[in-house]
Amino acid sequence: MNALLAQAPEEMTRGEVLANDPLWLVLLKVVLLFGFGVLMTLFMIVWERKVVARMQHRSGPNRVGPGGWLQSLADGIKLAFAEEIIPANADKKVYFIAPVISAATAFATFSVIPFAPQVEIFGHTTYLQLIDIPVGVLVVLAASAIGVYGIVLGGWASGSPYPLLGSLRSAAQVISYEIAMGLSLVAVILYAQSLSTGDIVDAQVDGWFAFLLLPSFVIFLISIVGETNRAPFDLPEAESELVGGFHTEYSSLKFALFFLAEYVMIVSLSAFTVTLFLGGYMAPWPLSMIGDGMLNEGWWPFLWFVLKCLVIMFLFIWLRGTLPRFRYDQFMRLGWKVLIPVNLAWIVLIAGIRAIRTDAEVTTNQILIFGGAVIAVIVLLSLLIPEKPAPADDDRVPVTGGDYPVPPLDLEVPKKPKRRTVTGSGGRSSNSEIGTEGRKEADDNGNV
């Protein structure tokens, strides 16, 4: 430890600098990370309501606070003081701890995210990051996976069938999309040669992985939308068939914790996406060229990091405001039959490219040209394969131009018998149904 203290910060690695932080600075970082997660959550809730309202030509929140920006704070205070109703069949201990697990794991993901390079905080040189460990990427994956336990336990402990079904959906959903999300990180790890989030950011100095590894970036974005149970993948809380989903029986502060956990996870996974694929805290081009990288030093990188996070968070809002909810079978088919196979093929391609570049003197342009030619040949072959004709179905019901089913044209609808007034012999009249077949007509005196 004394040897570390004797070294200058420039000569120490990121992990050594962070290990040298005093206790007061570590506690300050913890408080700042918690405040950052809460403030970004309050901001995103109102921002989402305003953006969706603009998409739907509505006003949105505009009463509480300047421009309505304190609406989420007012909603949180209202939920905290609302009446709490606990179901009689609930498992009280698990019912209480479930939302705590979801919220705590959501905040834990911020611990390994690098927000800025070396900065000065009250005269102490440090990184704007809580810890940097060799397996930082796995910490985020583990925290997001454990957070699902809160949803599963909350649905089970409620003692109601609808929350239980929502929690089971969430378990199947996370298992499916955790695999796709984990596989999309393999290409990033191959290029960065490290599982440390700080090393991954440093490896993107020459180019962001979002452009170099575009398929991994797209699959990762789809996976985090499914991981956070957001529209169009919000199947665990589908109100059309599950009332409110896994949190139907929750109210007051416990419901607020579930609500907070969802949005904190959105913010944290957005920050994780920026770290892995969008260069982290580094300034985008051409701002990075100003003053020999002057905007990549000091506190400026924190601004670029937040702006990039806002871009990913806007993507979450955009998807919710435009796409309808998937059917459950469509959702699972997308994860198992599309994302995972494509990811595996992409990993094999990336591993082959890196092996070729290592063993032979092959330039990047040659690899791109050869890869583009192979893809073009595959596309042409797929176009030449004749489509399999659909099997004939003689029992099909013909449809009109508007896709409305109509009855067969040879179907004759029987006519309804006429209603006649028959006068009896006593001068009174009575209504009777007189058919045209198998019946005699009544005469003027009412006799049949």
Automatic annotation (TrEMBL):
PROSITE patterns: COMPLEX1_ND1_2. It comes from Haloechinothrix alba. It is a multi-pass membrane protein. This is NADH-quinone oxidoreductase subunit H. It is an enzyme of class 7 (translocase). Residues 394-448 are annotated as: Disordered. Belongs to the complex I subunit 1 family. InterPro entries: NADH_UbQ_OxRdtase_su1/FPO, NADH_UbQ_OxRdtase_su1_CS. Residues 436-448 have a biased composition (Basic and acidic residues). NDH-1 shuttles electrons from NADH, via FMN and iron-sulfur (Fe-S) centers, to quinones in the respiratory chain. The immediate electron acceptor for the enzyme in this species is believed to be ubiquinone. Couples the redox reaction to proton translocation (for every two electrons transferred, four hydrogen ions are translocated across the cytoplasmic membrane), and thus conserves the redox energy in a proton gradient. This subunit may bind ubiquinone. The keyword NAD applies. GO terms for cellular component: plasma membrane. GO terms for biological process: aerobic respiration. HAMAP family: NDH1_NuoH (MF_01350).
